Amino acid sequence: YMCTIQIELVYNLNKLLSVLKIYDCLDIVLNDGDASDWATEAPDKEWTPMGWTATHTEYKQFAGTLDGQGHSISGLYVKEELSGVGLFGYIANAKIQNLKITNSYFESTINSSWVYMGSVAGIGYGTFTNVYSDAILVNGGEMTGGLIGRVVTANNTAFTKCWFDGEIHLKGANGKVGGGFVGSLEKDAGLTDCLMSGTIDCEATGDVNVGGLIGKRTSSNLWLTRTMVTGDVIPKGASYSKVGALVGNSSASVYCDYAVFTNESYSGGMGDFTVTGPGSTSTLVFKFVISALY
């Protein structure tokens, strides 16, 4: 089928400044078939995350806008030794909007602390508006998020009307961080009108940080507004000291205005607070939180 993608590319100070818009097409399909089969049977085409070179040793940050115009990208398949895994490897103040990532499979074959994985981006920061993903993410590395693995650098990351309905599988030994939207949140961020209905299946052993929305927050404030978790956080490993329905481990303030979690796995919204008590720098401001366990 015919498809028009408008792309403007400019490299500036190691950043890829661009605007991508998808017009006049149905949807972009890289591979046919069922992504749930691709763990053992690879499809024909493999995706290289944008922002990484062919040698995977350097990167160019994507710092532009991707406007999907309501279309979907499906059939993405990554299974190799990469430290930044997703549609993008690294984003910097990017705008991702009106996009669906469906029937896709991401796996890093590196069992290392320096692996960041998300269906949209491995690492970086930016704004996400009207973004949906039902991707499968399998990571033996450190940080995995349904949309982005690790948020760093700036305090302007925001998720608005976003939905993660996929699967996250955390494997390996100690130190795993996983969240339905963000694995590790290290700068201020907000979620508004968002839904996590997917599954986080943690088979990693030892100490992990897993939450329905955010796995771990370090020195960052988080605002939750009209946001719901209906998916499941399923721990299977030896020790899970920081697992929560909303946030696994938090060392800074959470401001929650109308949040709901219905998952049975962990009735405590904040894993760190439920199990070990709040840290000295932590503040919880919950205006209205519903736990509707079924």
How does the SSE layout of this entry go?
Elements lengths: L3 E9 L2 E9 L4 E2 L31 E2 L2 E10 L2 E4 L3 E2 L2 E15 L2 E4 L7 E3 L2 E13 L2 E4 L3 E3 L2 E4 L5 E4 L2 E2 L2 E4 L6 E3 L2 E4 L3 E4 L2 E2 L2 E4 L6 E3 L2 E4 L4 E8 L2 E4 L6 E3 L2 E4 L3 E8 L9 H5 L8 E8 L3
Parallel strand pairs: 2-4, 2-5, 3-5, 5-8, 6-9, 7-10, 8-11, 9-12, 10-13, 11-14, 11-15, 11-16, 12-17, 13-18, 14-19, 15-20, 16-21, 17-22, 18-23, 19-24, 20-25, 21-25, 22-26, 23-27, 24-28, 25-29, 29-30
Antiparallel strand pairs: 1-2
Note down, in words, how this protein is organized:
The chain is mainly beta. Helices cover 2% and strands 52% of the residues. The protein is built from one helix and 30 strands. The strands form three sheets. The chain has a six-stranded parallel β-barrel with strand order 11-15-20-25-21-16. It has a six-stranded parallel β-sheet with strand order 6-9-12-17-22-26, with no helix packed on it. Strand 29, helix 1 and strand 30 form a beta-alpha-beta unit. The longest helix is centred in the last third of the chain and has 5 residues. The radius of gyration is 18 Å and the shape is globular. It starts with a strand and ends with a strand. The C terminus is likely disordered.
